[in-house]
Design brief:
It is a single chain. By secondary structure, this protein is mostly beta strands. The protein contains three helices and 14 strands. The protein has a 14-stranded antiparallel beta barrel.
């Protein structure tokens, strides 16, 4: 997940139209105005003695007259325990001036660090190996209901892929509905999301997570302040933009963790390719109107 999205309470429309959003909703790629490369690192649970746990991702995307393409790799590593990797290839297309659709194909890898532990090595769970990989599919849609109002819907892990070693271990299907309203005159955005995770445990109510987020831009979008909240988290962060370079930071505080210093995400985006208006002509999007 990109740092800007995390800072606004995991908002699916926090920073649309850049390559990192392919991990949340591939349809947002259809609005890209230039190519980019994005890198993110998330240090999980610093200050808690649980070993090193971290997440990272790298993504790239580029718009063409035939649609927008994206590629990304996401990783998760818990030192001495487990590592996960997701390789994603996405495609998105604006089927209408106000409708964008997208698909992502993913290869999921889960590996366990048995090492020289004789008890773990003898565990029947690892009889046929210590890793598993499988394929998964995401789909998304973005609707521009009006110039300042957008709605997004994404379904991730449509096929609920099985990554179990000897028994079934399905990756839960997820759905996320997002709304965003932008006041261009004051450079302010508000978002609201509802996420559903079809886990095999927990009550029906536990599977829904609502969240809200806000972003205020200053100095012609050179600096942004962000904040968000859900029933379990409080988030905040900022963004800086220097020409084709953007830097984002997010802090995530969880209610159920009284120790530690929260999770911290940093992201760097580098744009390349044609400018915005040339790219919009290339991809068939209408010229952007200045509403400020």
């Amino acid at each position: 997940m990109a740092a800007a999205l995390a800072a606004m309470g995991n908002a699916s429309l926090a920073s649309p139209f850049q390559s990192s959003s392919l991990f949340i909703n591939p349809a947002t790629l259809a609005g890209m105005r230039s190519g980019d490369v994005y890198l993110m690192y998330n240090q999980l649970y610093p200050g808690i003695d649980v070993g090193h746990i971290g997440q990272g991702l790298i993504s790239t995307g580029w718009p063409t007259r035939y649609g927008s393409f994206g590629f990304g790799v996401g990783t998760f590593a818990a030192s001495g325990l487990k590592n996960e990797r997701t390789i994603s290839l996405a495609y998105a297309y604006p089927v209408h001036e106000r409708v964008k659709l997208g698909l992502t194909g993913k290869q999921l890898y889960h590996g366990y660090s048995v090492g020289s532990d004789p008890l773990a090595s003898a565990d029947p769970v690892f009889r046929d190996g210590t890793s598993q990989s499988t394929l998964s599919l995401d789909a998304g849609m973005v609707l521009s209901l009006s110039d300042p109002f957008e709605m997004a819907l994404a379904v991730r892990n449509l096929n609920a892929p099985d990554v179990g070693l000897t028994s079934r271990d399905r990756v839960p299907r997820e759905a996320q509905l997002g709304l965003a309203y932008s006041w261009s005159g004051v450079r302010f955005k508000a978002t609201a999301d509802l996420a559903y995770r079809a886990a095999e445990y927990g009550t029906f109510k536990d599977k829904f997570v609502p969240s809200v987020g806000v972003e205020k831009s200053f100095e012609n979008d050179l600096f942004q302040l962000r904040a968000g909240a859900s029933p379990w988290e409080f988030t905040a962060g900022f963004g800086l933009k220097f020409g084709r370079y953007s830097f984002d930071y997010a802090m995530v505080l969880r209610r159920n963790l009284v120790a530690g210093y929260g999770n911290h995400l940093v992201g760097l985006r580098v744009e390349f390719g044609p400018g915005e208006e040339k790219s919009r002509r290339l991809t068939g999007l209408p010229p952007r109107q200045d509403k400020s």
